C-alpha cells in the first residue's frame, strides 16, 4: 500500500541520516599514526602517516619507544615486526614541523630529537629480534629505525639514504655506527652526498639482509606470524620464514654505486 511505502521510505531516510552522521564522526577522528598490536607472539608496529611519507614526528617516536621498551621486557613477545602504510617505509623525521616551531622559538626541536635518539638507542639495544619491511623510501630517521634491527627486508621499491647534509645537518640516528662500517669508504660517500641506494646496492653493502618482491610482502607477514608460533628459537624461525620468499634483486636493477666503488674508495 502507499502507506507502507511511505513508512519504508521514511525508515530509509532515517537510516541514511544516521549513516551520514557516523561517517562524519569517523572522518573527524584522527587516525593513529602508529598502529601497535600484539598478534600471537609478535609485536607489530605499523607506521600510518602515509600523507607525509610516514615522516616520524615526536608523537610517533614516543609511541614507538613506549612499545619497544614494553615488548623488550615482555616474555610473551618473541620479536617485533615493523612495516608501514603507503608508498614509503619512512622518509625521515618531521623536519618541517621542527623548523617551523624552532623559528617561532618553541622547544619542539629539542623534544623531537630527544624522542628520536631515545628511540634509536632502545631499538639498537632491544633484546628482541626486529624485522623491518623496508618497502619504499627508507631515509634519515626511517633508516635508523630499520637498520638497527636484525632483519632488514628490501624490495624493488626500496630507496635507502641518509640525506641530512642537504638540509645542513649531519647523518644522525646512529648513522655514525653503521655508515663507517661499510666497505671502501662508501659510508662516508653516502653521508656526504645523500646518495640513494636501491635494493641491489643495499643488499650488497649489508644494509639490507634480504630481498623480497613487494608483491610477496603480505604472504611474508603471514609467514612471520606463523613462525612466531613455532617452539624453535625466534631468529632461526624468522630467517627460515623470510628465506621462503627471498631471492636476488631483478637482473635489470642497476647498481651504479657498486660500479664506482673502486674510485670512491681511493
Molecular structure report:
This protein has 266 residues and is α/β, with parallel strands linked by helices. The protein has helices spanning 2-28, 58-73, 95-103, 108-125, 141-147, 175-178, 186-193, 199-204, 217-228, 234-243, 256-259, 261-265, and strands spanning 34-39, 42-47, 79-84, 88-90, 130-134, 137-139, 151-154, 159-161, 210-211. The strands form 2 sheets. It has a 6-stranded mixed beta sheet, sandwiched between helices. A 3-stranded parallel beta sheet has the order 4-6-8. A hairpin with a 2-residue loop joins β1 and β2. The chain starts with a helix and ends with a helix.
Give short descriptive properties of this protein:
three-stranded parallel sheet, globular, six-stranded mixed sheet, alpha/beta, single chain, 266 residues, 12 helices
